[in-house]
Amino acid sequence: MEETRKLIVRHSNRIYRLFWLAALVFILLTVAAVGGLVYLLAFDGDAQSIIDMFNSISLFSHYDESDIAEFDLRTFAIIVDALFIFSHIMFILFMNLLIKVLKQIRSSETPFTKDNAKRLRRAAFLSVIALLFYNFIIAIVAFPVLMLFSALFEYGAYLQAKADETSRIQEEMIVSFAEITENKSAQTGNHVKRVSEYSQIIARQYGLTEEECERIRLASTMHDIGKLLIPAEILEKPARLTDEEFAVIKKHSGYGGELLEHVEGDIMQLARTIALDHHERPDGRGYPEGKTGDGISIEGRIVAVADVYDALTSRRSYKQAWDPNEAYSEIVKNTGTQFDEGVIEAFKTAYPTIEEARRRYADSKELSFIPA
Ligand SMILES: [Fe+2]
Ligand SMILES: [Fe+2]
Predict the structure, then answer these.
(1) Using a CB cutoff of 8 Å and minimum separation of 24, what contacts does 1-4 make?
(2) In this structure, which ligand is nearest to the CA of 256?
(3) Which ligand is nearest to the CA of 227?
């Protein structure tokens, strides 16, 4: 998905430059034609030199004496030049539309909007008028082609609306699951909200794209979904866990992976990856699989740091909240063993923003983590 998007952006970057070049050529031709018009208005020369001038500025047509025999030469020349300027302004407007569409693609916005479909329809009509002065056949072909593109954009806008609806439903499902997990696992108030905020902040600092960061923000809310399958007596035990009980708790990441195994949708699949990987460690001493280094997904490595930082700085039934500075030192101390080095670098740099989020979503404040 991400690869396809990058490929599309790369291609549209190339076409974007090409269109700019074409637009520049049209602008230069138009400027030359305006110059020609000024020249013609003050011109007083022979027929052949005017014919030569027409032919030098026209791309598709060739004029000879029979074309202009019935006209006053100077009037004819002025009309042709004015039409040339008009049709080129149309081309420039059309190029401007294409450049705008490509700009949207480059910034990962969808170009399939009803507005663009409408603009293309307008361009179809304008292009016909502009092309008529060049070549009748091209005009006749261009019109249905542009109208077809407009219809495709209209259809794309419809599909986009459907896709938006699907991801909205996905988001709502994620939020509901996260709320259920949070209630069930007796975690302090806004744990899930804070972990998802910290994860997004770290991901952004790490250099992931804004779209990836947003996906991590959402998917990380389900990191502990496997706790739904852990007995309440263990989850809610108001004292330190025995080794046996801890072994049961440790099963929650594997359970999370199983629960989300067959769900569809990219965010849900990322949620599965995070549920599985958020207790793995680069040194291989994590669980459930004991993965090492880059074998752990980057999303899992990010959420691991966010999760532990929040667990340390929050009060739990069996412990007091740590001082943020001590929690910070504890996390940094475990770089390379429990936590990924690159992720810790991002955590350190983004730490002031993380602290700001911690204060904003402190447990005393009642809030829902439904995405804004
Ligand atoms: Fe967990
Ligand atoms: Fe957690």
Answers:
(1) 1/266, 2/209, 2/211, 2/212
(2) 1
(3) 1
If phi over 0 gives left and psi between -120 and 50 gives alpha, with beta otherwise, what is residue 259? alpha
Instruction: Output 8 or 205, whichever has higher pLDDT.
Output: 205
Q: How far is the CA of 222 from the centre of ligand 1 (A)?
A: 9
Higher pLDDT, 127 or 72: 127
For ligand 1, the distance from its centroid to the CA atom of residue 253, given in whole angstroms, is 6
Distance from the CA of 222 to the center of ligand 2, in angstroms?
A: 9
Contact 32, 15 (CB under 8 A): no
Supply the CATH classification number for the domain 185-360. 1.10.3210.10
Determine the distance separating the centroid of ligand 2 and the alpha carbon of 336, expressed in angstroms. Answer: 21
Domain boundaries, the chain: 2-161, 185-360
- Whether the predicted pLDDT of 295 surpasses 60: yes
| Centre of ligand 1 from the C-alpha of residue 250, in Å | 8
Q: What CA–CA distances, in Å, run from 104 to 99, 101, 112, 119, 146?
A: 9, 5, 10, 14, 19
Nearest ligand to the C-alpha atom of residue 309? 2
Give me ligand 1 centre to Cα 263, in Å.
Answer: 20
Residue 328 has pLDDT above 50, yes or no: yes
pLDDT for 299 beyond 90: yes
